[in-house]
């Protein structure tokens, strides 16, 4: 029984904690459209990185933002990255992030665990990291006013999904073209009903 209790408390991911000497400001890094996640993950290392896939117009991503912004202070020995899933669609496909926000724990360049809770607060995120890695959070960290301001935006961005708009226009154009080219409805188009082969 004692062995079962000990094994239940053992971390699932054995993370190499990074050296924090000389670092006085712990923050997450947001990848821009030209940066590749794989450049920031070292496949030959056992250090751990928590990666958030989000979109700026998703209200769930916005409500998670201040909590995720505070995590680097709670776990200074881990790295935290965030990327806009709509700008990195190939990565979203590669790691199976069909919905946002989506949080993956990487060891080196390998995804080890996915955060699957609907309650996305600092406390549930701390519990997730502790349960996976065994690394305890600093107890004095709380969500502050600065965490609401950034670096991850907690205010929804209004924008146009250009890919969706293009898809709808393409589909509408195709349907119109197919309709016009169909023999059975040529009589609906003015001038087409009098064309005969002579």
Automatic annotation (TrEMBL):
PANTHER family: THIOREDOXIN DOMAIN-CONTAINING PROTEIN 15 (PTHR14684)
Record's protein name: TXD15 protein
Gene label: Txndc15
Chain segments annotated as transmembrane: 162-180
Highest taxon above the source species: Eukaryota
UniProt-listed Pfam families: Thioredoxin
GO cellular component: a single term: cilium
Keywords: Membrane, Transmembrane, Transmembrane helix
Species annotation: Edolisoma coerulescens
InterPro entries assigned: Thioredoxin-like_sf, Thioredoxin_domain, TXNDC15
Keyword Membrane listed: yes
PROSITE patterns: THIOREDOXIN_2 (PS51352)
Span of domain Thioredoxin: 4-134
Entry's Gene Ontology BP terms: cilium assembly
């Amino acid at each position: 029984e004692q062995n079962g209790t000990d094994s239940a408390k053992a971390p699932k991911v054995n993370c190499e904690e990074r050296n924090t000497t000389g670092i006085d400001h712990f923050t997450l890094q947001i990848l821009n459209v030209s940066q590749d996640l794989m450049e920031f993950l070292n496949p030959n290392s056992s250090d751990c990185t928590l990666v958030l896939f989000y979109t700026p117009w998703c209200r769930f991503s916005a409500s998670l933002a201040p909590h995720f912004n505070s995590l680097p202070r709670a776990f200074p020995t881990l790295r935290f990255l965030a990327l806009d899933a709509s700008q990195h669609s190939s990565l979203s496909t590669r790691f199976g992030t069909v919905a946002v926000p989506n949080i993956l724990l990487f060891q080196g360049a390998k995804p080890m665990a996915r955060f699957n809770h609907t309650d996305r607060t600092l406390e549930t995120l701390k519990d997730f990291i502790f349960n996976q890695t065994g690394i305890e959070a600093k107890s004095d960290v709380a969500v502050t006013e600065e965490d609401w301001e950034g670096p991850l935006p907690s205010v929804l961005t209004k924008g146009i999904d250009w890919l969706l708009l293009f898809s709808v226009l393409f589909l509408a154009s195709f349907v119109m073209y197919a309709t016009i080219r169909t023999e059975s409805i040529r009589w609906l188009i003015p001038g087409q009903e009098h064309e005969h082969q002579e």
